[in-house]
Amino acid sequence: MYRWRYVEIELERKLRSSGAVLVAGAKFIGKTTTCMRFQKSFIKLDRKSAIDLARLDPESVLKGGHPRLIDEWQSVPELWDVVKRDLDDEYIFGKYLLTGSSTPVDKTDIFHNGAGRISMVRMRPMSLFESGDSSGTVSLSTLFDGGKVTTAHNDMRIERMAFLICRGGWPVSVIADEDIAIDITRNYYDGLFLFENSRNGFWRNKKPDVMRAIVRSYARNISSEATKSRIIEDVRQNVERSLDPKTFDDYKEALDDLFLLEDMEAWCPSIRSKTSIRSSPVRHLADPSLGAAALAVGKKDLLSDMETFGLFFEDLAVRDLRVYAAALGGEVRHYRDNTGLEVDAVIHLKDGRWGAIEIKTGGSENVEKACASLQRLSAKLEAKSDERKASFLMVLTAVGDSYTRADGIHVVPLSALKA
């Protein structure tokens, strides 16, 4: 059963404004299934025979109705230039759809960036609203337009949220029976680092144990500003293996190319004061289930350590916020300055509107602390920045009801949110 995806909004918009659209993201998130809903013809480059033919006669890959879907195009990187040249000769909006589960294995084959002709859409695992695990009673779009949050009861339990963290947003896991859903996710994780049959040396030469070690370190440092040196030292201590910075950069690039890591950059509004905004990224995975699988932890393990649960829940919330923000044409960043003021997420739209969000597991004390941080950020920017006033301030929780406080700050469970 197909479930509608927010990326379809972006995809439809891009097909009307670009000659070709690249849909990029990790394996098994549903790129091909979603793009098949938009294509008029397609070719899948997931077999050796198809890849060999595409290398011998790349122009033949373009033959068919438009939009023409070229699935796993990065298997034949020179197709990028073939598509670009074809658009130079005959530019038509929505002519090609390209999907890819990694950045091209040989980037030197791409001589032109395709600017103005080929646009990119980042597809992510399913958000809770897409998987049917959020009621969607609170809309970010409505809040940006000045709407209110209606007080509403929410039935989400902490045990269920721990399960959702471990299951992840992989479509096959989402539609599976719950007793095997996490097994499916872990099977997926176990197969991520098998490159011995790759036709390209870049992947064949990657040591699976090193890649797994880096993902495990990310999981141990999830939702934190862990430095590169800290991650390298963590890998060394846990696998008893030396890892120099250059090698780390090479392996991290490979994991980025597979769309498994997605660090969150800092939001840097212009502030007229001596305040120094920290620019360190916050470490995040494409889906929290990758971290749970890497550390071999289940929902009972998370529930027995609420600090770890909170960090993994933050990763889950960031995943969903990124899906929703992208549908609104925005991006998600974090804020931290030298006064100690931190805010977990800021959604910034292209028209300058923004909303600030603190992510907490729940509980009145945690909500109060989160609201204090949001109020400080709002006051600081209102007094010392050219940024417009926040469209909304929100505390996003794992459990609890939706409501708006007397000070105007919204308290919303993640399982009630949508774009």
Automatic annotation (TrEMBL):
Domain (AAA): residue spans on this chain: 19-130
Domain DUF4143: 205-361
Pfam families for this protein: AAA_14, DUF4143
Gene Ontology MF annotations: ATP binding
Keywords: ATP-binding, Nucleotide-binding
Stretches that traverse the bilayer: none
Protein name in UniProt: ATP-binding protein
Organism: Candidatus Aphodenecus pullistercoris
Taxonomy of the source species: Bacteria, Pseudomonadati, Spirochaetota, Spirochaetia, Spirochaetales
